[in-house]
Amino acid sequence: MVLENMNCCEKKQLFLKINDEFEQIPFTFIKGKKQGLTALITAGVHACEYTAIETARRLSNEIDANDVTGNIIISNLLNVEAFRKRTPFIVPQDNKNLNKVMPGDKNGTKSEQIAYFLCENFAKISDFALDLHSGDLQEELTPHLYYIKSQEKICIEFANKTDIPYAVPVENSKALYGYMAILNKPALLMERGQMGNVDRDEVDNFVNDIKNILFSQGIYDYKNCSKEDKMTQIIKKSIYKTADMDGFFISHKKVGETVKKDEELYRIEDVFSNVKSIYKAEFDGIILYKCGALAIEKEHTSIAYGSI
Predict the structure, then answer these.
(1) Which residues form a coiled coil (predicted)?
(2) How would you classify the pairing of strands 301-307 and 237-242?
């Protein structure tokens, strides 16, 4: 709805309003020198994943419309209210996870309306999507990405243009990449950075990842593009473990570390250091992310790992 009224080689950075009940959402629109594919880049679905949000900010400022063929749409910060209040995971107006309600509902709750606005207006007109994420305030993670199995061929081609070492295929998802697959379009959910920090090195890596993918699709003339494809490793099976009780989370494992079956991954203790629960690996694998806080709540994610 914005691109139609733009000239070639033009960039617009503006705020869009869903309705009178919402804060305005920042977007960057870049219309290239001639027609081509349209890429959708999103950040701030989870508002405390700062490395991802800073990456989107960098991209929106660094990409020159004169170097673009086609169009780039960047949602700089989708979950504005949560960012302002420093609220992790959810949209504070309805306590829902925006990453689990796509494609949303025009007349639904706040999260569902944001999701509908994104999907209806921008996902549908885009040829592919790159959804940028990071480890939230209490999440340690090693870089990895997710895609829908039905789009595996093109998604792995995208992944091999990045320095992200692991790719996790899933059957379906209520995140943006899941909705894009319903539209028969490729999309990645990409993870870099951790613990709610702005890791400048990881921002640089993330920016490079995205520019390389855009270059590979003929959208962006990236002069520093990588000359050789990487070999992203596909995770064959994975476990996303949640805590079975409240307590103190104790783990000596590091993200990206390989573990063996029956090796202890973490334990939960009480305030007096009494061990209440121990969790051991169910197969050999690699730790993708884990709780980085001392406190953990029952049914909250404790650790995720997968096998190659």
Answers:
(1) none
(2) antiparallel
